[in-house]
Amino acid sequence: MDKRTGLYKIGAIRKWYIGSQLIADVLFAVAFSVIVSALVTDVFRASELWVLLLFVLSMLILLFVRKSWMVKDGVISNFLDQHYPELEESSSLVLKSGDELNLLERLQLAKVEGYLQQIPQSHPSFLKRIKLALLLLIVALGINWLARKHHSLVSIANHLAISSEKSKVPEIILPEISAVNVTVNPPAYTGKTKREQDKFTLNVEDGATVTWKITTNVAVKQVLLLFNDKEIITLKSLSTGKIQWQAQKQITKPGFYQVNVDGKLSDLYQVQVITDQPPVIHIKSPKQYTYIDAGEARKISIDAAINDDYGVGNALIFATVAKGSGEAVKFKEYKLDFSTSFSGHQSQYNLQKLVNLQTLDMEPGDELYFYIQATDTRQQQSRTDVYTVSIQDTAQLLSMDGMLSGVNQKPEFFRSERQIILDTEKLLKDKDSVSTQKFNNRSNDLGVDQKLLRLRYGKFLGEESESDINPADEKNDPVGDINNYGNAAVILDKYTDKHDNAEDAQFFDPELKKQLKATLTEMWKAELQLRLYKPQEALPFEYKALRLLKDLQQKSRMYVAKTSYNPPPLKLEKRLSGDLSKITEPAYKQDIKPGTDQFENLKKAVAILEQLKVKPQLNELDEHVLALANQQISLKASAQPGIYLSALSAMRRILSKQANVKLYDIALVERAIQKTLSPPQKTPASTQNSIDMGLSQEYYKNLNRLNR
Known about the structure:
Radius of gyration: 49 Å
Strand content: 15-25%
Number of strands: 20
Number of helices: 17
């Protein structure tokens, strides 16, 4: 084979490599320019002509850095030697002249040139950069699409905002009015300043004072303000030419009004009132029911958050201390402040108060009831629920009252929880008079007593003992008996670990079982502190365990009624006979007269409006019905002008006998009437006969007659 064939093959592979690298560089440049152009056009609002400049610049940079066209044939031959083992690293022989080759190299060259013709011109590694560039280009196009979409959404939103401002229907004022100036003076509780506007539509705070100054272009005799078709306010003339008019009114409820200039009424103007909401109180701590055990600090931290729309005026804690029990209970009330200044119109306060119960003369067994009451700047008040804080009465826990059963003698090592508490308190009193070693030994002994008591109560839950091995029973071991050889039940009974006994124990119901587990947990904690020679820290857990035990004792009691009940004797001849013939059900009959339908005129108005869509003519009866419906819609518009005012204006346009009644006005009125109408209430009605026409009842009667 000719040597030029091998050179041609390496040259073809070199061209494929250079072409793939150039394509990858172009794709990288396009991706980079697309990403940068998306940022430039969206953030800096630059022209899209920068994309072409960025592409050219990035392409030149890649060509200068990569220099793929400068790849030599020797690089390609080394690449082929690395990826094709059959060339035996001899492809470089093709690049040498025939004079430089010896006999062995010529023989190897003939072999290599045969393999070179079988190698494809394009290697998969040439396409790696192209694939990476395509992936980056797809990501760039996605980023560009998102940026353009965001830009279009923002522009659409801005356009809609501008168009909505433009599309707002301007107020229709009378031609005689040239200018209007409305001054709104908010009430003092809002803390807002006076403001002015040039529109008749009002959106003011509750109790605000509004002043109208109307200027006419001609002299008029009288200017009035008509509120909700009822109240009339006469404007005073400020000039001799009767051109400037003024009136003032305090707004306390929503509605609508009109301007009357010499008997000519204007359009309906809306009056919205911003109501003042009472303050909102949220107590973060303590919990609604708090129990202070023995040994715990007799203090509670009250953390509350108060919010109001215009500001909080004051906040107090109303506390009541209950002492004693039964008929001897006494109450004492306190008022506690948060020591916070409520000046200004701050809308949110985070308040904290640390209450020392000893300063309220509270003793063990007493209870504290408190709630927080807040007042806003308008003297509106709101309060929270009542929270309860109780202090544990250790004397009552240690008393033997209510133990009606006789003394049950127990072994000495079964110490009661009450006795452990007494011994712990005695140990604390003797702490200064005994040595450290003796103190620790006594504390450890109490821990042992607490452990034995815990194991004693744990048996009720089916818990395992510390050791199931009894040396005395080893002689009578049933497993060692020759008669039990091969008895699997005996072996399983001895060696099976029965961990599920605690869950399967059915001595108590789930609630009592849960409380008994909680008692054992407190005993565990007390035992831990006693074993660590910390009897002071063990006391709260001991008291809590005792309280839980007394609760269990109270729940296990049974109560019997004081009076007995002697039922009448049963007649055995009628027992289980099923005779119900002498038992009759009382029959009640009542005539219910239908009441007057307050929405009757509105329902009739709907039918008339439907006729107007086909035949735009009204007779006197139809006008009367629509006028009555107009009065009801007017009442609704007085309470909710934002919903019914447009419908009221449409109804008045319909009643004005205009030549062409617009379908839009009819639709507005119909929607308002549909909102006003309530669903009909269900009234009593006679029951319908069954499907079998009473045959089942007759069959039952005949069956009873035969059984007699």
